[in-house]
Amino acid sequence: MIVLAGTIGAGKSSLAKALGEYLGTEVFYESVDNNPVLDLYYKDPKKYAFLLQIYFLNKRFESIKAAYRQDNNILDRSIFEDELFLTLNYKNGNVTKIELEIYKELLSNMMEELEGMPKKRPDLLVYIDVSFETMLSRIKQRGRDFEQVDDQPDLEAYYRQVHEEYPGWYENYSASPKISINGDETDFVNNPKDLAKVLTKIDNELSKLGLT
Ligand SMILES: Nc1ncnc2c1ncn2[C@@H]1O[C@H](COP(=O)(O)OP(=O)(O)OP(=O)(O)O)[C@@H](O)[C@H]1O
Ligand SMILES: Nc1nc(=O)c2ncn([C@H]3C[C@H](O)[C@@H](CO)O3)c2[nH]1
Known about the structure:
The active site is at 76 (proton acceptor). The chain is built from eight helices and five strands; from the N terminus they run βαβααβααβααβα. It is of the alpha/beta class.
């Protein structure tokens, strides 16, 4: 099981798709297009932050359970990143202390369930590191209406916060082996040579771990 991690617009879904094709394995995408809460959250984070966190946590758990039933698969974003968003929402006053505590208890119960499963941890976490400027330009380029800074200038400060949290999160991540890809310098979406380099790097890491 390979999980992709990184800030908003880092390139997780794009790399997950390419990796899935390369390795011939199923990809479990993050629930975005059919998400009934995400656009509401971007309009009114105070009202919808807790609901969105619960929604994502539930979907993430569902994907992990489905992924564990098969030998090989790829997950677009890890369950370990959810707490980063939760804590940020708490800091920003969008989630109350009681909601924070209830969520953490639920998360810890869910993590205990995962401990009981045959495969407890991902085999490899692939982190895509991008600069703040790249993050903003990719969000703009992708063009999801509710994420646009041009329509909602306050979002820039939120994106900066999310971006600032990620390096420390990656540094502290220790649940599985991990590697980092430079998403600024490597265009694995439009440049086949760059994509080949990234796939080789991941392949080499899987070999080192005895997984190929
Ligand atoms: N390395 C890259 N080089 C060039 N363009 C990229 C790269 N990675 C992603 N993109 C482009 O940036 C946009 C965002 O990518 P993608 O949707 O894969 O990000 P994501 O990390 O899955 O985002 P989210 O966290 O919001 O789900 C897309 O338009 C994609 O084509
Ligand atoms: N608040 C919040 N909490 C999460 O756990 C979470 N996971 C993803 N997202 C947002 C980021 C992208 O807009 C979009 C796609 O990644 O969904 C989240 N937002």
